Amino acid sequence: MCGIVGYIGKRDAAPILMEGLHRLEYRGYDSAGIAVVDRAGGLRLAKCKGRVRELEKLLPQRLRGSAGIAHTRWATHGEPSDRNAHPHCDAGSRIAVIHNGIIENASALRARLEAAGVCFRSDTDTEILAHLIAAMPEAALDAAVRAALRMVTGTYGLAVLDAARPDAIVVARNGSPVVLGIGEREMFLASDPAALVRHTRNVVYLDDGEMALVRADGFETSTLDGGATVKTPSTISWTNEAFDKGDFPHFMKKEIAEQPEAVRRTLSGRLELRFQTTHLGGIELAAHELLEIRRIKILGCGSAYIAGCVGAHLIEQLARVPAHAEPASEFRYRNPVVERDTLYIAVSQSGETFDTLAAVQEIKRKGGRVLGIVNVVGSTIGRECGRGIYLHAGPEVAVVSTKTFTCTSVAFALFAIQLGRIRDLSTAHGGRLLDALAALPEQIERIIAREAEIVRLAEKFIGGEHVFFVGRSAGHAVAMEGALKLKEVSYLHAEACSAAELKHGPLALITPETPTIVVLPRDDLFHKNVSTIEEIRARQGPVFVVTHPGEPPAGVEGAFDVPTSEPELDPLLLNIPLQLLAYHVALQRSCDIDKPRNLAKSVTVE
Length: 606
Ligand code: G6P
Prior knowledge:
This protein is α/β, with parallel strands linked by helices. It contains 18 helices and 27 strands.
């Protein structure tokens, strides 16, 4: 998604801004741009469609100036093009604006400005802001931005630079994140801490409805109505190195490999071996409150939603509380019934996904209780929920989610065990689950060590067009995640379906050219899944399985077995080879693995 970077201080802004843009590349974008106020007080602008390295080629050799803003754009209003790339300026090229989000009353405002004689140079909603701010009679830049924003409805995280007043940058936030980084007589600003962690780990997150006047020597925050606000800086725990690929060819590969360590961190300090239960301090729910929960509703988008499906199974199986996962977008648009004795759980790696955030806000408005399972500490969803479970998985940079899917599933297991032990989960079963959780990191290491087997398996898929993924019960969630991963990175058409549903439609598509991957744990449903395999084989469909050790069913063309765990935790391990499969199919098809086309890491628009 769009990314914002800004700098004001004693150094030249351009190199800092360009480095920041590189840090934000992982979020997904289609164009980039930069504006710096030069030593003569002029606004120097460069922007283009394509990658940040192409923008670099456009930069003037000597671009001196110590205040600037830069942007990566992911098109919403207007196609990806040079002219639609941010920053956008007013007619006099004095005001430069970069903006994440969508201005909803853009067409009305544009018509009004055009009627007043303004000529637009782009198709974007953002350009409107530049013209509005430039036209405001207010003397101070923050007052002019505030006045312009009063005319606007929609969402924004934005930064404004004024060549006539280059001693400050104004930022504002409504639905799209803005974070300030505090340096030594210099200030940084960004939409994502990844862009500033190299320079400072001392940060301030703006809240919705807040703006800030940022100068080299500090900042003042206020509400959009003008009332001063007080912010307490916090420290980012992630280091700059965590955002580097190191010796790995791709972030996706690095993050798959990091899973054993990431799972250890999610588990750290949370296993209560003495009482065969778990301890999650951040959920801030006493035992009697947990006992009163009658239903659990889980909300998220993309892989976070699918991890929620795994979580719902874990909760139902271990705690015997009805639990259901739903895409956050569907939930928020259907005027949902929010119940007093339902616990809502919002899942988000970034903590910034717009639909998930909006679902959380809807639940809170209706008086519901919501807790977050979030990776990025201090993110909007984390703060909005106020309580929950942080994954501590470390930064996830690849657009596709791998380690945070696994860690979210682990977090759900921890929660389900705590909830279960308050109810009917026996000490013996609790104890077995804790042992199984503690064994997961080493089991994941063993799967990753067999990567060569997956490389050979991947060769069988590279020439095809369609792949089906089939599973039952929690295995269906594994199939969904396997299909999502494969389509995201390799662009093969991959579709997941519940094994029993196969014969109600998708079976019509099975041919010798359409392979099916069956999620086949050796559990109570093993024989049902074997029957599904026979149905597919009867239509000459090639079948591959992810399974447990033992003789694979007859006619299967490839099998990968994972170590056994407690049955409820099987999905976590069965998913790992499918991540590697997606990676290697994409690699062999020469895809842009860390930045799949059209996709973004955190989707901060509706
Ligand atoms: C995007 C990403 C997915 C991710 C989803 C939800 O679509 O490409 O990988 O699962 O957003 O993101 P979140 O940060 O809320 O987990």
